[in-house]
Amino acid sequence: MALNRASLDPPLKEAGLRSALGSKVPDNNAVQNLYRLIIESSGSTISVNNLAQTLHKSHDSTSNMLSALEKVWMIWKLESYHKQLTKIIRKDCKYYPVDWIFDDKLEVKTAVLLQRRIMYLRQSLGENLQLYFYRDYEQREVDFVITLDDSVVLAIECKEKENSLPSTLKYFCKTFNCPGVVITNQRNQLDLIGKNFIITSIDIFSYSFL
């Protein structure tokens, strides 16, 4: 989806950002550009140093702007899952917008729906649920990992063309004793139910699970 400055300007409420940033207020163009970079890189791991270099800002200034965008609920951070394993890349993180209005890719839509549901369950029922992604130094990656009381309960992968359980998910489930897997797509149908895994559309998944 093509982005332009006009389409991104309305959600950036300067008063809210100033309140979140306190006295450390950068120019609004810098915040706009950072927000645009977050949307364009949704689903990819992000380095604050790389963002700072792109924006020609300091590391601290960029970190403050990221925190401000989180505080006014425009973006949210997804951290990598690890369980005291040295092979996990611990410092990786991803940022997603709070809505897929500017980016309706499958992974972004899945991320937003998962985050909303998990926040609801935490706040209304007190469930100790957390959402992560997984990546290790062998480049094995799982898009989303849900834990309950620090135990992995579900792995979610976004794949448009998948009719079986990928090797990465098999490895993850074996390594972390994950009892269930969901593979989402946008085909608007329930494709397959296997042993401990389901391949289905994000819409069906959101209605049935979320």
Task: Note down, in words, how this protein is organized.
The protein has 210 residues and is an alpha/beta fold. Helices cover 40% and strands 23% of the residues. The protein is built from 8 helices and 8 strands, in the order αααααββαβββαβββα. The strands form 2 sheets. Strands 3-4-5-6-8-7 form a 6-stranded mixed β-sheet, sandwiched between helices. The chain has a two-stranded antiparallel ribbon with strand order 1-2. β7 and β8 form a beta hairpin. α2 crosses α5 and α4 packs across α5. It is globular. The chain starts with a helix and ends with a helix.
Task: Supply the key terms.
single chain, 210 residues, alpha/beta, 2 domains, 6-stranded mixed β-sheet, two-stranded antiparallel ribbon, 40% helix, globular, disordered N terminus
